[in-house]
Write a structure and sequence with these properties.
- The chain has helices at residues 23-38, 47-63, 65-76, 80-106, 138-151, 166-178, 192-201, 214-224, 249-261, 278-294, 313-328, 364-367, 383-391, 406-414, 448-454, and strands at residues 2-8, 13-20, 109-112, 117-125, 128-132, 155-159, 185-187, 207-211, 230-234, 240-243, 273-277, 332-335, 354-357, 374-380, 395-396, 398-402, 420-423, 438-439, 442-443, 456-464.
- It has 478 residues and is α/β, with parallel strands linked by helices.
- The strands form five sheets. The chain has a seven-stranded mixed sheet with strand order 12-13-14-11-10-16-17, sandwiched between helices.
- The N and C termini lie far apart (69 Å).
- The relative contact order is 0.14.
- Bound molecules: nicotinamide-adenine-dinucleotide.
- Nicotinamide-adenine-dinucleotide binds at residues 132-136, 159, 161-162, 192-193, 196, 200, 211-213, 216, 219-220, 234-237, 268, 369, 371, 397, 437, 441-442.
Length: 478
């Protein structure tokens, strides 16, 4: 089998060599998943046993939390604080949550009908589910998808990004130790472009849950259309922070800062457009820029580091090309916009936290997803203008509103064209609450009962109850 080097983006050095699956091996993974679903132990296991196995996985993640956090930081570059307090514990919590809720969520429903009949609704697993995930939250997004898919009774094939396969491979070991039967979980490290057409068009794959860019999502939809499949598409974003004049300025500045620079801005929900009321725009921008300049860049393993490197040299080049476009189209750099000078940062793929002022909606940097630490600041005069600017996007993933007037913010949130709106906060994901985008940000939900049920198929069973013969038996009473 071919091998692929895995790089630490903070140093540019190889940290692992991982076997890379090619097209031919996809057949083995799909066959194993299908067999485990149709004939293996998985469908025979009771819901209580399924719950216990998933709780074992959750505990297994917690038992290895330190090692996993370090590995995630080495592979993605994100600061250790982020992997330690967000990615790893949230992954364990998701397995725990869906383990504990699978029974109530899967409970069948009865529909009383008035015509001597009754119906029952059954939530069944879909079968083999392919989970295709990106590199920005490798363990967390894999855990969201896997916990829901397994809790619903499916078998899975997980394809992590070939840039960041390390924690997904550790998760496979944890799942093995947790006692899940063979074939239920199959993790493949592969190039998406190479195996995508084979995996996503295989008729034995019943569902694809994808998180990644809108362009890859479109390709996957094309492959999937060859055999009809259920799809969840969690795609790109260009989300807006709306900063109203009646906000708590310090909270809004700090909130807006975190919501673009966390994980180096490589977040689907990154608030990469700040729309700020003209009345407070000068103060807001000055404070924002002052704080952005103080963010400490470095190796994520260093406890002092607040921002790590971008994921790869190629990705940094893409971010730089957007910054150049912004300059050319007339936006004004307020801070950053360069590769840092410090010698200790030269080997990694670092880029300074960058803010553009005087950004107009027709500019490329206002419209396209940059997926890096680059924010556009645009001023507005009226609330209606803020709303128009926020919705002036082909994406519709998330939005945040900063205001002391909760009722005003709630009213505004109803008119926002995005799947999630945060008011005076950002980035709060809950296992209890569904998450997913509108427009080019995709369709389908993850998390919550609504997200969980996406991983099931709904069957309607109708039965005749009255003592009378059913109408259908008398239709041709010849
Ligand atoms: P990507 O689309 O390049 O890759 C995502 C995954 O798809 C990877 O595993 C990749 O190997 C695989 N892939 C690539 N080409 C494929 C193909 N032809 N067939 C099948 N699989 C293929 O995205 P990325 O660069 O890893 O991640 C960044 C993107 O992900 C951004 O656009 C970001 O907004 C998006 N994202 C969205 C969410 C969300 O919840 N909406 C969350 C995180 C990231």
């Amino acid at each position: 089998m071919r091998k692929k080097n895995v790089i630490n983006p903070a140093t540019g050095q190889t940290i692992a060599e991982v076997p890379r699956v090619d097209k031919e091996n996809i057949e083995r993974a799909v066959t194993a998943a299908q067999k485990a679903f149709d004939e293996g132990a998985w469908p025979k296991i009771s819901l209580a046993e399924r719950r216990n196995l998933l709780l074992n996985v959750s505990q297994g993640i917690l038992d290895k939390a330190q090692e996993l956090a370090r590995l995630e930081t080495e592979n993605t570059g994100k600061p250790l604080k982020e992997s330690t307090f967000m990615d790893i514990p949230s992954s364990a919590k998701t397995f725990e949550y869906f383990a504990n809720n699978l029974e109530p969520y899967l409970k069948s429903k009865k529909i009383e009908l008035d015509s001597g009949a009754e119906s029952q609704l059954l939530y069944e697993p879909r079968g083999v589910v392919a989970l295709i995930v990106p590199w920005n939250y490798p363990l967390l997004i894999a855990s969201w998808k896997m916990a829901q898919a397994l809790a619903a009774g499916n078998t899975v094939i997980l394809k992590p990004s070939s840039l960041t396969p390390l924690t997904a491979l550790r998760l496979a070991e944890i799942i093995n130790d947790a006692g899940l039967p063979q074939g239920v979980v199959n993790v493949i490290n592969a190039s998406g472009a190479e195996i995508g057409p084979v995996l996503c068009s295989d008729p034995r794959v019943d569902m694809i849950s994808f998180t990644g860019s809108t362009s890859t999502g479109r390709e996957i939809m094309r492959f999937a259309s060859e055999s009809t499949k259920k799809l969840i598409m969690e795609l790109g974003g260009k989300s807006a922070s709306i900063v109203l004049a009646d906000c708590d300025l310090e909270t809004a500045v700090m909130g807006a800062l975190t919501s673009i620079f966390l994980n180096q801005g490589q977040m689907c929900t990154a608030m990469s457009r700040i729309l700020v009321d003209k009345k407070i725009a000068k103060q807001f921008s000055e404070q924002f820029v002052e704080k952005a300049k103080k963010i400490k860049l470095g190796d994520g393993l260093d406890p002092e580091t607040q921002m790590g490197p971008l994921i790869s040299h190629e990705h940094r080049q893409k971010v730089i090309s957007y910054v150049e476009k912004g300059r050319k189209e007339g936006a004004k750099i307020l801070c950053g916009g360069r590769i840092p000078d410090e010698p200790e940062l030269k080997k990694g793929f670092f880029f300074e936290p960058t803010a553009f002022g005087q950004v107009r909606p027709e500019m490329t940097i206002f419209q396209e997803e940059i997926f890096g630490p680059v924010v556009c600041i645009t001023e507005f005069s009226q609330e209606e203008e803020a709303l128009r600017l926020a919705n002036d996007s082909s994406f519709g993933l998330a939005c945040s509103i900063w205001s002391k007037d909760l009722e005003r913010a709630k009213n505004l949130s109803k008119k926002i064209d995005a799947g999630t709106v945060w008011i005076n906060t950002y980035g709060m994901f809950y296992n209890e609450a569904p998450y997913g985008g509108f427009k080019e940000s995709g369709f389908g939900k993850e998390l919550g009962k609504e997200g969980f049920l996406e991983y099931t198929r709904l069957k309607h069973i109708n039965y005749h109850l009255s003592g009378e013969k059913p109408l259908v038996s008398q239709w041709y009473a010849l």
